[in-house]
Design goal:
Largest sheet: 12 strands, mixed
Number of domains: 1
Oligomer: single chain
Strand order of the largest sheet: 7-8-9-10-11-1-2-3-4-5-6-12
Distance between the termini: 43 Å
Number of helices: 5
Structural class: alpha+beta
Helix content: 10-25%
Length: about 270
C-alpha cells in the first residue's frame, strides 16, 4: 500500500509539474466498492475511469468497458464463453473470475453546462437521461486530512436519498469526481455514504493521450425516476434471468437487499 501511494504521488507530481492543466487530458482512476450483503460481508469491487478533458469529463466502469469490447465480436464472444465456462467449472456458482460487467452507468459532464448526461443499461437496452448539477448542495467543513500527499478538505451533502461525506483537494483544480459528483473547488479524492454501502477512492491520476469516449451511441430517452424504478424491478429478477440464460443455478441473495436501491434510493418514495 505504501509503494502504491508513493507511485500515485509521483504520477500526480509529474502530471501537474507544468502548473497548467486546463488544456490537457487526464485520467483519474477510482476504486469503487459497494456492499451487496452486509450480513455475510459480501462486497463488490469496481474500477472507474474519469476521463478529464478541457471542456468535459466522462466516467465509466473499466470492467464494463472491457467486457463490452470483448463481446462485441464473434471471436470475442467465443473467448468470453470459454472463460465463463472455465470459471464456472472451477468455482461453481461463486465464480467471478470471468470478464463481467460491474457498474453500467456512464456519466458525461460538460463543464460549461448545469446538466449531466447519464447513460445506463437494463439488460442490453441503453437508456439516457439528464440530471441537474444544481441538486448538489455542498456544505464545506473545517476538517482536513492528507490523502496521497495532498491536503484534502471535507464536505458533506444529501443527494437523492443518501448522505455523503467527501474529501476533495484544491491542489487538483478540477471541479469533478467519480460518478455524478461535481461542484467542489477541487477533485474529489474520496467519497463515502452514511450507511457505508458505497465508497469511492482515488488510486491514480495520469496524463491521458487517448481518452475513452462513449461507445454505446444514443439511448432511449427517459427520466431519472422512471429509469431507476425500471432498473430496480430488473435487478430484483436478475439472478433468475441469468440462471435461465446461462444454465446456472446461482442462489438469490435475500439476506440484505439494500444494494438493489442503488446509489439514488429516493426513487422509491416518488
Amino acid at each position: 500500500m505504501r509503494r502504491l501511494k508513493i507511485f500515485l504521488i509521483i504520477l500526480m507530481d509529474i502530471a501537474f509539474s507544468s502548473g497548467n492543466v486546463t488544456g490537457a487530458n487526464y485520467r483519474a482512476v477510482y476504486d469503487f466498492e459497494y456492499t451487496k450483503d452486509s450480513i455475510n460481508s459480501i462486497i463488490e469491487k469496481d474500477i472507474l475511469y474519469l476521463e478529464i478533458s478541457k471542456n468535459s469529463s466522462f466516467c465509466f466502469s473499466y470492467y464494463t468497458y472491457y467486457t463490452d469490447s470483448l463481446r462485441n465480436t464473434p471471436d470475442g464472444q467465443a473467448i468470453w464463453r470459454k472463460l465463463f465456462s472455465a470459471a464456472i467449472a472451477k468455482d461453481g456458482t461463486n465464480a467471478t473470475s470471468f470478464p463481467h460487467k460491474r457498474s453500467t452507468f456512464m456519466v458525461t459532464k460538460c463543464y460549461t453546462s448545469d446538466t449531466l448526461c447519464i447513460k445506463d443499461m437494463i439488460d442490453n437496452d441503453v437508456y439516457e437521461y439528464i440530471a441537474s448539477k444544481n441538486e448538489f448542495h455542498w456544505q464545506l467543513c473545517d476538517s482536513t486530512k492528507t490523502i496521497n500527499g495532498f491536503e484534502a478538505h471535507k464536505a458533506i451533502c444529501s443527494y437523492h436519498g443518501r448522505d455523503w461525506t467527501v474529501w476533495f483537494s484544491s491542489d487538483i483544480p478540477f471541479s469533478d469526481g467519480p460518478w455524478v459528483f461535481c461542484g467542489l473547488p477541487g477533485l474529489i479524492l474520496e467519497a463515502q455514504d452514511k450507511d457505508n454501502l458505497f465508497s469511492f477512492r482515488l488510486v491514480g491520476l495520469m496524463s491521458n493521450q487517448e481518452p475513452k469516449k462513449n461507445w454505446l451511441g444514443n439511448g432511449k430517452k427517459t427520466d431519472r425516476i422512471s429509469f431507476l424504478k425500471k432498473k430496480y424491478k430488473y435487478l430484483e429478477n436478475l439472478t433468475s434471468i441469468f440462471n435461465a440464460e446461462m444454465g446456472t443455478n446461482i442462489p438469490e441473495n435475500k439476506n440484505d437487499t439494500r444494494y438493489l436501491d442503488g446509489l439514488e434510493p429516493d426513487f422509491k418514495s416518488k
